[in-house]
Amino acid sequence: MSTPALRVVHEPGPGPDLEAAEAAAADLLTALGISLDSESLRGTPGRMARAYAELFTPRSFDLTTFPNDEGYDELVLARGIPVRSVCEHHLLPFVGVAHVGYLPGERILGLSKLARIVEHFACRPQVQERLTKQVADWLDEQLEPRGVGVVIEAEHSCMTLRGVQAAGSSTVTSTLLGTLREDARSRQEFFALTGING
Q: Which helix (H) or strand (E) holds 87?
C-alpha cells in the first residue's frame, strides 16, 4: 500500500502586503537620511519590499517518501545544500551550506526533499541554532528514521559587515538525534562525511 505524499506549505496567514511594505521601506530609508529623489533610488523601496517578501516565502512541496524495501540501514547524507536566510535580530542575510543525513527506518526520502526542507525553514527571520534544530526535529517526526544529523555552516553578515566586522568568520551548528547522537561510531561517521571534525 503506497503512502500519499505529505504536502508541505508555509504557515497559514495573510500574504505580504507589498504596498505597505514599500511605504515602510521608503520611510525607513528616508529616516536613515537616504534621499529617494534620484532615478536609481526611486524604485528602491519597492525592490526592497519584493526582495524581503521573496526571502520570507518558502515554496510548497510534496514530501515524497518510499518504502525501504531493501532494508537499507546505512547513512544517507546530502552535503553542501545551499542555505540562505535572514538573521531575525538585524534582518541581514546569512548564507552557507547545510549537511543533512539520516539513518533510514521503514521509509526513505526523495533526495531533493532534504534541500526543500532546509529551504522551508530558512525562509523566515531565523537564528542558525533554531534552523538547525527545526530541520532535524521535522525530519525525525515525519520520517521516523533511526537517526538524524544536521550541520549548518554559515556566514552572518550581521557579524561580518557591521558590529565586530569579523570578515571571513563562519558559524557551525549541529543537531544529532537517535542513533547519530547515541552511538559514537555513527556520530563519528556522520561528522567525517560532512567534513566536520566531530
A: strand 76-87
